[in-house]
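WP5 quarterly update. Target: RNA helicase. Source organism: Delitschia confertaspora ATCC 74209. Length: 848 aa.
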Amino acid sequence: MFVQGNELKYQEMTHGYENINQTEKKNIRDREADAKRDLGAPVEVEETARSSSVPRPNISFALHLYPGESNKHKVHDTMKRALPPKVAAMKARKRQKLDKPGGAPPAKTSAKTAAKTYKKRPMRLDELQWNDVPMPDRLDDFHGFFGLEEIDDVEVVKDATGKVTFEAKASHTEPEVNALAGKEDNTGEVDAIETNGKAAMDESDGWEGFSSDDQEKEGEEQVASKKEKKQKKQKPKKQTLAKDDVDSASGALSSTKQGAFAALADEALDEDEFVDVSAWTDLQLSAETLSSLSKLKFSQPTPIQSATIPEILAGHDVIGKASTGSGKTMAFGIPILETFLALPPKPSSDKSKKSPLALIVSPTRELAHQIATHLTNLCSNGPFNGPSIVTVTGGLSVQKQRRLLANADIVVGTPGRLWEVISTGHGLLSLFKQIRFLVVDEADRLLTEGHYKEMEEIINVLEQSDEESAELSDADAVEDQNVPKRQTLVFSATFHKGLQAKLANKKSRSGDLLSQEESMQYLVKKLRFREEKPKFIDVNPSSQMASKLKEGLIECAGTEKDLYLYALALFNAKKRILIFSNSIPAVRRLTPFLQNLNLPALPLHSQMPQKARLRSVERFTAQPGSILVATDVAARGLDIPNVNLIIHYHLPRTADSYVHRSGRTARGQASGLSILICAPEEAAGTRRLIAKVHARSKAEKKSKMDYFIRSLDIDRRIVSKLKPRVVLAKKLADTVIAKEKKHSEDDWLRAAAEDLGVDYDSETFEAEAPGRKGRGTGRRKKEREATEMSKGEQQALRAELREMLSHRVNVGVSEKYLTSGAVDVNALLQGEGNGEFLGTVDLGFDDV
Ligand SMILES: Nc1ncnc2c1ncn2[C@@H]1O[C@H](COP(=O)(O)OP(=O)(O)OP(=O)(O)O)[C@@H](O)[C@H]1O
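Structure tokens (predicted):
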């Protein structure tokens, strides 16, 4: 039986089990039976009427439970567990070891023996000692069931009234027994992990895009982090939180929260896990939030947090503007958590659906998931039961999201899916009308064409008409008088002038940045703030660019962009690089092009399936030295640590796009580079665009024109030595793309022909198609050649490229900056080569 949160998850797990073929099932059953016989383990789990109708997985009785929640699962009077084969085998081996002469500790000091001296007694679930369950290798899709835990020697007892209790030997929690066995009392840790899991589970539960690879990785990480925690715990403990905070945190714990968490107060003294948070004192946050911030190692608020949090806590509507990577998510996340903590607990007798506290809208799916993750980190780190956070984005199951929404405290989503779910979900509309916070992140983007329609619909339904208010019951109406009005919080690093022009029905060059006053007027019109004058807080009026960002520009012929891209990637091998392009086809082409050159490139664009999108971001985040080739879908908000270099392969179309793309590096206190690759004829326009971003006043615009963007000096003679390999890699990439394109065109035409009831022959169609002359003929000829390339020819090209890549690039002995006269690109890729081979790439970026 599997219990996740309050729900029986039996069917999902069964589904995973069905991925195993019949022979494997039998083998597992046999191995399990053998292991059980070895152990003398008795019985199979008896299932309830509901669950017995479906085939049952062999891993049994694993529970995911959260402290403080009632568990509605049904159990039989005397349920006992069967062990998963791997665990059973492990235990059998352990027992053999213990049975060997001299292999076991002296009988008196053995935990097992000591435990025998204790009788079983009723225990809370969070007192029990849970163990990780290794999952079978063949289970491809766990549907959220990674990180399962199980427990030994626990009796599940149901009394005559149907009440279920758990009985175990007291040794499960007795510190002295654990000490005898060389173990430590980790009750507090278990609680903390389960609490953390709560919000995370809400998100991953609805996350169809998780691959089994990802799950395995996550499972490994969880185990690793648990081990790490254990090691840390063994270190001598020191007090590092500000003393007042520790005192008040402990006070808050004992007075307001469950006893099961009291162990965390002791852990709060661990130096490695907590930092001094006295710098947050002025914001007058609760002990719970401070404790969480301490654990996140956020020792002080960022300027946007210091400026906006008090205003939001005072109940104001706020428009917050601050440079990229300056902590805007926590600027609204912390007040939302504070409000959540101050809410009275819902009486258990109250069975009505609750309204979410906050709705956070984001322009992209990746950003929505990231916001949810950041909030989960904030809300699951402290000594309290955090809010339930639900992500509502496209690419995930609508039904699941609707189901989770019924219990959500904080909802994060993209406008399209949010609108779909809210407007069609039963009763969700009225719940959302009662939210206390509407957060519009990356507001200028969300209010642009393409997004605004759905955003406007959401804003409209959130407006509660008088008639609708009257429909509330009397009791609700009385309560309503005391409920503070909804606050609207708007954040971005930029505000976009084109929007304002559109509003006034004027044409303007989009991409210009708005003045403070213009931003206010625009937003007040678009978002119906409750306050007449929301607080406009701009902590970086002079610039929206991160202070430690350095910018540069490379001029090259349009046809040589690929070559320079490769050169730049080589020069920055081992660094995390994010390449921006303006089109999806370019991302599709550049990714295999770089991969052909042995560079670890990953794609990201909006036409990829959600699963692949999330995987690309995850892999890019996990692997230092990887390269993400993306459209502007990655430009806003993504917070990937240690991105060292942004390359604008295509020039950004607008000033704000440049700001946001470049803002993926140099986040927080980190440094970073942003390099534009442009053709000579594009250079002047690019400089104008950059000057606009940096100018504080109109007068400065002209004088600063050349100041902010430096031309990077790359030795063209050396770059040209890389050309042969680039030509081959490009040809191969073009071939693959052209073949794929041909296939999809063929499929489309074949389907159309079928609909019309005619035969489709691609060659005849090509020959007879009209308008096949004139512009684009050369490109089409190339495409045709590429599609006609045989497999053998492709293989020959690959072999040639491999051969080329395995040799050093001969740059001639006379080049003064080279010691050997040849460049070992492979060594360079491993971060060992001569990094100067590109010539005088003196970017003045030494500190990056
Ligand atoms: N007080 C703090 N101290 C240290 N780090 C912080 C603090 N607040 C937030 N951070 C971290 O700073 C990073 C950037 O934060 P965040 O993503 O919220 O930036 P942002 O201003 O929203 O950026 P963007 O404009 O690009 O969306 C995150 O990794 C976040 O965890």
